[in-house]
Amino acid sequence: MPTHSVSVDRVASLHVPEPIVVARAETGLVAHFPDVVSLGGGHLLATYREGTGHLGPSGRISVVESEDGGRTWGEPRVAVDGPFDDRDPKLARLADGTVMLSYFVIDWSTKPRHTTHGTYVRRSEDGGRTWSEPVTAGIGMSDGGIHAWHASHGAVVELPGGELLYPVYGRRADEKWWRASVVRSADGGRSWTDEVPIAVGEGINFQEPTLTVVGDEVVSMIRTDVEQAYLSRSSDGGRTWSEPAATDMPASSHHALPLSTGEVLVTYGDLSKRFADRRLTVGRLVRSPGGDWDGYPDVLLYDSGHPDQANPSSVEVSPGRFLTLGFDVPAATVVGVFTEAGDYSR
Asked: What's the rounded Cα separation, in Å, for the pair 125 and 111?
C-alpha cells in the first residue's frame, strides 16, 4: 500500500491566545482523551478520561459543560466509573437531541495480556446530566467464541435516515493484523448489530477509525502503524467500503469535524516531528471533502511541552469559529484553543 511524504512547505505556526482551561482533573489524577460536542445555542458538552496516567488499572469518564460557547466551563462531574479502565470517551448529538457517550473498557490485571471488555454506548436525554445503563456495541471480532481485542476512538454518527454507525477496531486472537470496522444501530443506540469491516490488510494495522458524514457518503479516516492515516468511503450507509487509500497526513489520535459550510476540519496528533521532537496538535481545513484530503496547509494548534499530548477534538462554536480541545499532563487539565476558518489558509 502506498504512503505519502509530508511537505514542509505546507506547515505554519498559528499565533493564538493562551489556551483556556476547560477542566482540571481531581488531585492525584491526570486528564486525557477529551471530546466535545455542541448541544445548540452556545451550550457545549465535553468529556474526558481521568486516571493516574495514560495507561493504568483504573480510569473514569467525566463530563463538563459550557453555556457560552466554550469561553467558561462549569464543574466537572463523573459520568462513568466502573471497576476497570473506562477510556477514550466520545460524544455525539442525534437529531432528536439525544446525546450518545461511547467508550471502551480494559482490564489491565489479566496475564499474559490485558483484556478488553468491549465497546459500550450510553444514552442521555437531558443533555448529559444523567445516562442510561451501558449497551454493548461489540465484545470482540470473534467467531465461535474466539477471544478478541476490541476498542473504539471515533464517535457515533447518525445517517440521514436515522440509523447510527459506530466505528470500532481490534483483532481476533487468531489474527495478526488489526482491522477497522463499523457496527450499526436501527433503534437509537439501544442495540448494535452487523459488524462490517472498513479496512483489513496484510502488513498494516488499521486502528482508531473515525466517521464523517459528507453529503451522501460516509468517510472513515483511519490511524495506521505506517505513520500516514488512510481514508475509506461508503456510499451505501456503511454496508460496503472502498479500498483504503493513504493520505499525506502523518496522523494519530485524529478528529474530523463536518462544518456548516460542507468543509471538514481535521485535527490530529502529528507524528512527523515537523514542528518539534514530540507529537503536537495540528489542524487542516479540508475545503473539498468529496475529493482526497491531501495538499491542504497544516497549522500548529497546540503544544503542551510534554511528550504525552494530542488526542484532539473540535467543535464549531459559531460559523467559521472553532474550539479544539487537548490536554496538558503536567497541569492535569483539559485545554482549549479557539481558531477561525481563515487561520487554515496560511
From this structure: 39
Amino acid at 213: V
Q: Which three cell numbers stand for residue 80?
A: 462513568
Is residue 143 predicted with pLDDT exceeding 60?
Answer: no
Identify whether 3 is part of a domain.
Answer: no
Helix-strand-coil percent breakdown of the chain, rounded to 5? 0, 50, 45
> pLDDT by residue (tens digit) across 188-223?
999 998 789 999 988 999 999 999 999 999 999 999
Q: What are phi and psi of 325, to 5 degrees?
A: -95, 150
Residue 339 lies in a domain: yes
Give 32's contacts (C-beta < 8 A, 6+ positions apart). Answer: 48, 49, 50, 51, 54, 87, 308, 311, 327, 329
- In this prediction, residue 1 carries a pLDDT of 46
The domain tally of the chain equals 1
What is the C-alpha separation between 32 and 48, in angstroms, rounded? 6
| Mean pLDDT (whole number) for 272-291 | 94
CA nearest to 80, candidates 61, 99, 64: 61
What's the mean pLDDT when you consider all of the chain? 92
Please state, as a whole number, how many other Cβ atoms lie within 10 Å of the Cβ of residue 122: 21
Q: Which domain holds residue 26?
A: 10-345
What integer is the mean pLDDT of 125-138? 95
Q: Count of CB atoms within 10 A of residue 197's CB?
A: 15
Give CA–CA dist 36/28, Å, rounded.
Answer: 24
**Grid coordinates given for 18:** 493562551
Which pLDDT does position 149 carry in this prediction?
76
Nearest-angstrom CA–CA distance, 304 and 19? 10
pTM score: 0.94
* CATH at residue 185: 2.120.10.10
Domain-located, residue 215: yes
As beta bridge partners, residue 166 has: 183
Whether 282 is covered by a domain: the verdict is yes
